[in-house]
Amino acid sequence: MKEGFLKIQNVSKSFNDIQALKNVSLEIKKSELFSLLGSSGCGKSTLLRIIAGFEKPDSGRIYLDGEDITDLPPYNRPLNIMFQSYALFPHLNVFKNISFGLKEDRLDTNTINQRTDEILKLLELDGLENRKIDELSGGQQQRVALARCLVKKPKLLLLDEPLAALDKKLRIQTQFELVNLQYRLGITFIIVTHDQEEAMSLSDRMAIMQDGNVLQIGNPVEIYEKPNNEYIAKFIGTANIFKLEKNPNNNESYFSPDLNIQIQTKNILDKSQCLIRPEKIKIKKNEIKENTQEINKCFGIVKEVAYLGSYTKYLIQSNNCNFYVFHANNSISEKLNIKWDDEVECSWDHGAIYLL
Questions:
Q1: In 3D, which of 174, 203, 208, 209 has the Cα closest to residue 191?
Q2: pLDDT in tens, 110-147
Q3: What is the C-alpha separation between 335 and 290, in angstroms, rounded?
Q4: pTM: predicted TM-score of the whole model, two decimal places
Q5: Using an 8 Å Cβ cutoff, are 21 and 13 in contact?
Q6: CATH node for 240-355
Q7: Domain 6-235: which CATH number of 3.40.190.290, 3.40.50.720, 3.40.50.300, 3.20.20.300
């Protein structure tokens, strides 16, 4: 993939006394599906609007495919944006909604019909050409909005919370469709979302934003397994974070005051806490009421249980410290093996620990 297809250099933006973006720099590759992820107010939508040309940065530049587009008006930028609300025309049918931009560009009728027919087939909308927007399902409306953006063959497509209006089952299905479509077309996609699972499912790479800053850029595995700080660890997935102290009696392990046990990792670094994801912790009943102190093992009581089909979520209390365990349900059962108030043994491998 070509490096630096979209370059965002030192972009800052303020609204009165609120600084929405603080010297943000990003490089996004050609044909990449890139997500801007963060909670409300982090600056991700402001950055998208600056790329689209709806806002002007106070400082910094935007380059697209080698061209400085910072001062170009939105209608002269070789990109398109799909809004969360879809912004479809209710008085036009599907065909006319999709072809609207082509007509505005004053293309000839044959070209308009050909390109609209191509995108209708690509997005499996053929047969719906004459339907009005209110006669479509939510998923079909989403595909019409996407088709209207893609029919103009933009170099870059911006998507603002594109799946937010869909129910959960349809949202998951559409995630795969969106990835497959982007792969087939080779168009660079930038998606703004606050949904961590959506960003993880869709992205080649992603940027985590907070208070106008980019905290970390990486692929979903890097972000999840090796977060830069505690905020990212807690924002992406469920995080068990334990305090660490250097062990004066053993320079090959740490002491965890939270769990009152020794924790051994692959490397001993100058770190004060560690991350252990809930799915990396093994859990079993403490049948013989054993309470022997061992490295990377603790004993506790089950305080909460949530059966979620593919896995069961446990809240464990050990040494007055609460943490989560996700146990995969690998076999068919009519009842839970581990229940509320059971005494349990929890353990993990040293490779499951990431030092923060």
A1: 203
A2: 999 999 999 999 888 989 999 999 999 888 888 899 89
A3: 25
A4: 0.90
A5: yes
A6: 2.40.50.100
A7: 3.40.50.300
